[in-house]
Amino acid sequence: HLDRIAAVDEDVHAFLHVSGARALAQAASIDQTRREGAPAASALAGVPLALKDILVQEGVPTTAGSKMLQGWLPPYDATVTRKLLDAHVVILGKTNLDEFAMGSSTENSAYGPTRNPWDLTKIPGGSGGGSAAALAAFEAPLAIGTDTGGSIRQPASVTGTVGAKPTYGGVSRYGVIALASSLDQVGPCARNVLDTALLHEVIGGHDPRDSTSINRPVPQVVNAVKKGQSQDLSGMKIGVVKQLRGAGYQKGVIESFDAAVETMTKLGAEIVEVDCPHFQYALAAYYLILPSECSSNLARFDAMRYGLRVGDSPAASAEEVMSLTRGQGFGPEVKRRIILGAYALSAGYYDAYYGSAQKVRTLIRQDFETAYTQADVLISPASPVTAFAIGEKVNDPMAMYLNDLATIPGSLAGIPAMSVPSGLASDTQLPVGLQIMAPALGEEVMYQVAATFE
Ligand code: GLN
C-alpha cells in the first residue's frame, strides 16, 4: 500500500501525511508477535488503514486541513486511534479533508483538494474526501472518517465506496478535533460492507473520556452482515422518504435509486412511502446549529495554546496576536461559519435563530420516530448528485451546502446511517450511493440491509 501511495498519490492527493517508517515498524512488530505464536489481536490485525486528519495520533502531524495547526504534533492518541493500534491495524497516514471538516468537496482544505480516482477532474466529496479517495484508489483497504452532516456518507457515495455514521455516541469523540459537538460522529469506511462492519466493531463502544458516549455493548454488525448475505429481505419493511427524492436530485441518481428499490422488492422487502414533512427545514436548521457550535469550539484556536502564532512581538497585545493569527490561520469558509454562529448566538438573536433551529431539530427527530413505526429502515440517495467538477461550486456556498440535502436529517436526529454503492449513474457514468438509515442503536438492521448490496 505504501508503494501504491507513492505511485498514485501525487495525482489523487488523498494523504496529507504518510507515516511510512512508522507503519513499517508497526507491521514488523505485528509480524513478530505472530511468529512468536500469539493469537491475532483482531480480525483486522495487520490490515492497513488511512486515518482522517482530524483524529489525533501521538507524535504524528495533525492539521484538520487548516493552516492553524500546521506543524502541531499531538501529545496523545484519540480513543479511536488507540483502539486501532491495540487491534493491530496499521495506520498508513493522515488523509485530507475540508478545513475543520467544513465542506463537501475537500476544496476547503488549506493544503489543496483531493481528486476523485474515478475522474481526476472531479471532487471526491467532503469533508472526508481524502479517506474515501484513498479507498477508491486502492491506497488503503480501510479508512476512518467523521460525519457531522454527511462527511462520511457523501464522499462514500461519490467514490463508490462504503461509509457508515454510527448512532451519535456509538464511537468515542475523544481526540477528535471538534466541529459541532452535538453532531460529530466517527465512523468506519471501506470498499465493501463486511470490511466496514469489521472496522465498526473495532472502533465502537463506550468511552468514559467522552461524556456523550453511550454505555451499551458494541453492535454485532459482522453477524448482521452475514445474515444480510443470504439475500433475503422478506418480512422487512423499507421506507422510501418522500422528501428525499425529486427536486434537486440528478436524473441518473434517481434512476439508480429506483433500481435499488426494485432489487429490494425482488429480495422480498415490502416498500412503503414515508412522509417526513419537516425534512425540508433540515438544511436551514443545520446551518444555524453547526455554525453556532463551531464558533464556540474554534474559540480555542487563540494563538496562545497551540498551533499558529502570527505577529508575536513585545509590543503586540494578546488581542492583536489573536486577531492576526485567526485572520491568517482560518480559511474563508471557516470564517464565514464563525461569523454566522457568533451572530446566531448573540443576545438579541439567540431565540430567533438558534432557539428556532433547535425546535426544528426536535420536529425532525419526531418525523423519524413516526417513520420508524411504519418501516424498519429508511432509504434515500446518499448524495443528490454524482461527483462534480473541481472548482464548479467553490465560490457558491449555498450550492455546496445543498450536497448535504439527504444526509443532514439523520445527523440532526443522531441516528445511524450509511452509504453503499448502488451502481453508476446512466447520465455521468459515475458512482451513486444508496443511503440506509436505521433507528438509534439500529446498526445491526442497517448493516443487514446494506449487505444485500455486496
Ligand atoms: N458538508 C457538511 C458541512 O459542510 C458536512 C460536514 C461534516 O459532516 N463534517 O458542514
From TrEMBL:
Amidase domain residues: 1-444
InterPro entries: Amidase, Amidase_CS, Amidase_dom, AS_sf, GatA
Alphabetized UniProt keyword annotations: ATP-binding, Ligase, Nucleotide-binding, Protein biosynthesis, Transferase
UniProt GO BP: translation
Catalysed transformations (reactions): L-glutamyl-tRNA(Gln) + L-glutamine + ATP + H2O = L-glutaminyl-tRNA(Gln) + L-glutamate + ADP + phosphate + H(+)
Gene Ontology molecular function: ATP binding; glutaminyl-tRNA synthase (glutamine-hydrolyzing) activity; transferase activity
Subunit structure: Heterotrimer of A, B and C subunits.
Name recorded for this polypeptide: Glutamyl-tRNA(Gln) amidotransferase subunit A
Protein's organism: Nakamurella antarctica
